[in-house]
Every structure is written in structure tokens, then in C-alpha cells.
Amino acid sequence: MMLTRSAAWLKTSRFTPSWREILAVPGRGLSALGDRMPKGLYARSLLIIITPIVILQAVLAYVFMEKHWQSVTARLSAATTKDIAAIIELYQQFPHDPQTKQKLERIAQDKLALSVEFRPLEDLPPAGPKPFFSILDQALSDEITQRIARPFWIDTVGRSDLVEIRIKLEDTVVRVFARRNQTYASNSHIFLVWMVGSSLILMTVAVLFLRNQIRPIQQLATAAEAFGKGRDVANFRPRGAREVRQAASAFIEMRRRVERAIEQRTTMLNGVSHDLRTILTRFKLSLALMGEDNAETQDLIKDVDEMSRMLEAYLAFARGDAVEQASATDIAQLLEELRADAQRHGHETRVSFHGDPRVTVRPDAFKRCLANLVSNAQRFGDDIVISGLRETRYLTVHVDDDGPGVPESQREEVFKPFVRLDEGRNQDHAGTGLGLAIARDIARGHGGDVVLARSPLGGLRASVRVPV
């Protein structure tokens, strides 16, 4: 009964891990391993190909060493041990005089290729260090123990081309020098050279093959990125494997459809713009002929002017300046032009730029993006600071002012078309609510974005960040 209660307590105790905790341990290990794995397709493909090659070569090496080297070394060691045992047997059968020793030494040298020496009785040297690969040491020791059964000492580490063996008898110590290839499979270097050479050849083929297979994918990614930034994709055509060619062909067809849709939209907008401008021009002409003396005519003229500004803003937002080609632009000079425009409108403006000013953008569109942000800052602030930074991968431009700013909860709301804040600063009362929307649309057309934050001047900071 007590044991049952103890088991129940252990089940409900906090010291007993749950099945979720047990499964989470290998999961965390796999997650950590995944974080250390390469992220690129080229590196992962090489890893997939090279890892089996290395494992296969390691298995082959292990099997060869365990089966071939060990068996061959055991046979060679057994043959050498038998020869030594025969010399010892002959020595014990005949008188132990110097002539007998000389004859046995000559027979061992001529017939068995062994250098034998009968030394005075002495203690054997202490055991020396074992070699790193102890196949020979172990095989030879086992054979001498089984076939001769006498105290012995061997040295397989000393002289590289010879193996020294000392066997202690009743009245002498037999010292034997044998060539290493008599007791050991000494052609291991051939296998090692073959193993390393074949691995290098396979890995070289894998690297060259994968490089040619990955390059079309990289070119497709580069073309897609360039098209997303509004840049021209020159000399791009499907290459590589069938699946990569299909993806490249699909991208080219998608690009054609997008360009055709943009062209059709531009044509339609140009037609609408022409017709509406014509009507507005007639209105202005009629109002001019009517005279500007009465108040009603002046109100109509203001309405027509406001309608013209709204029409231009709507068309600019709908057009998106997507038809303009990207080119290398001096951003520092562009910022200076914006500063000069702001100064003419009576706003104190400072400009700074760091890094290489030459950046590939659509110049008119990018200037319009920054001009909208500067114009927005002019409406609500007196002091304006424009700062640019060209880094390795990105161009960042900050427009700071000392105005009232925008609450953090509404900073994304002001980017929606036609949205105005009650206390906001998206546009003034005469605007259309499209300034920030157009700026973000142009920035995203370059592969970047526009974000709002609190300015060091106390107002709003509008930051444009685009890849270079």
C-alpha cells in the first residue's frame, strides 16, 4: 500500500518530467542544429552531396582497416612468428656453441630474410609506447604469445622500416630484426591516396556541377529583384535545369503582363488626363471671358484651380511613375535641390549626406517621394533637417521637423489614400490626402518603404529606406 502511494506521488510530483518536456529536449537540439546549418541553396546542396561521400569513404576505410589490414597483418605476423619459432626450436635441438649460432643466423638471413642475433642473457627492455594504429603491435604480440610462449619485447615504433623482436630463453636473448612489410600490410598509403583522391575528385565535380546549376537560380532572383525595383532586366533568358527554365519563363511572361498592364493603364490615364484638362481649360477660358469682377466668378476660379490640383494628384497616384527607367542619380545633389526649394518657401532647412551619393533609382519618382515628405514637413514645422546615409546595401533618407507630430497609433493610418487626421499632419485642408500614400508607393516601387517615427527635433521623422 505504501509503495503504491509512493508511486502515485512520484507520478504527480514536479520532479517527474512530462512527455512534452521529454520531446522538447531533442526538438531543441534539432532547432539549435538547424540554426547552425548553412542557409544558402549552394551550401546546402554541397552539404547534401559531400556528407554521403565523406561517410561512405569513412565506412570503407573502417571496413578496409578492420577486415583487410587486420587479416593481412595477422597472416604476415603469423608467418614471421613461425619462422622465429623454427629458429628457436633449432637452437634448442642443437648444442649451444658459437658455430651453431652462426649457422642459425646465416640460415635466418639467407632463407628467411630475418636478422637474428643470439645475445647474452639479460633483462628485456621496459615496454615502450604503443603506436597510434596498434594493429601490428597487437597481432604480433598475440602470435608470439600463442606460438612461442616466452617472455618477449617488441618495438614497432622505432626504426620505420624494421621491427625489432627480443625473446628471452633460458641462456640467451634472441634478437630479431624483420622488415616491416614482412609483418604488416604496408600498402596502406595506396588506399589512403585513393580514398582522398577520389573524394577530392567527387567534391570538385559536385562543386562545379552545383555552381552551374545554382547560377541560373541566382540570375532569376537578381532579375526578379531588379524588376521589383523598377530597373531594366537586360540579357535575361531561361537557363539551367528544366524546372529552373520553367520558373524563368513564368517570370518573363509575368513581367510582360505587368508591363502590358502598366502600358495600358498609362495610355488610359493619358487619355483621361487630356480630356479632363481640356474641359478645365474651357472652364478657365469661359471664366476669364466673364471677367473677375464679381465674387461668384472668383469662387468659380478657385474651385477650378482646386480641381486642377486634385486631378494632378489623383493622376500622379494612379500612374505611380512606374514607366520611368532607373538610372544612377546623385542623391546628395537631389537633397540640395529639395533644401533650396524649402528655403524659397521660408523654411530653415539643413541637409547632410554620408557615403557614396551615386544610387540607381528612378530620379523623378524618387525626387517626388522626398518632395512629398519635405512638403508635409513644411506644412507643420518651421525647422527641417534632411539627412541621407548610403550604406553597403541600403540608402536611408530622414526628413525631420519640429511640428506637432503624429500619434504612434495613427502612423500607419496616414499612409492610406484620402485619409486625413483630425489633428493630423497628413495633408492640409486644401490637399487630397495622397502625399504620403504616393511617397510610400514610390518607395515600395524601389523595393523599400517609408516609415514614421518621433523626430529628435520633437516633431515627426519620415524615413525612406531603399536597397541600392
Gist of the model:
The protein is α+β, with helices and mostly antiparallel strands.
Write a structural description.
The chain crosses the membrane at residues 41-65, 189-210. Residues 271-468 form the Histidine kinase domain. The chain is an alpha+beta fold and 468 residues long. The protein has four domains: 2-36; 40-236, no CATH class; 243-319, no CATH class; 327-467, 2-Layer Sandwich (Heat Shock Protein 90). 58% of the residues lie in helices and 15% in strands. It has twelve helices and eleven strands. The chain has helices at 2-12, 19-36, 41-93, 98-111, 135-147, 180-183, 188-228, 242-290, 295-319, 331-344, 363-380, 435-445, and strands spanning 114-120, 152-155, 162-168, 172-179, 327-330, 348-354, 358-361, 383-390, 394-401, 449-454, 460-467. The strands form three sheets. Strands 6-8-9-11-10 form a five-stranded mixed beta sheet, with helices on one face. Mean pLDDT is 78; it is low at 1-16 and 422-430.
Helices and strands, with pairings:
Elements: H1 2-12, H2 19-36, H3 41-93, H4 98-111, E1 114-120, H5 135-147, E2 152-155, E3 162-168, E4 172-179, H6 180-183, H7 188-228, H8 242-290, H9 295-319, E5 327-330, H10 331-344, E6 348-354, E7 358-361, H11 363-380, E8 383-390, E9 394-401, H12 435-445, E10 449-454, E11 460-467
Parallel strand pairs: 6-8
Antiparallel strand pairs: 1-4, 2-3, 3-4, 5-7, 8-9, 9-11, 10-11
Helix pairs in contact: 3-4, 3-5, 3-7, 7-8, 8-9, 10-11, 11-12
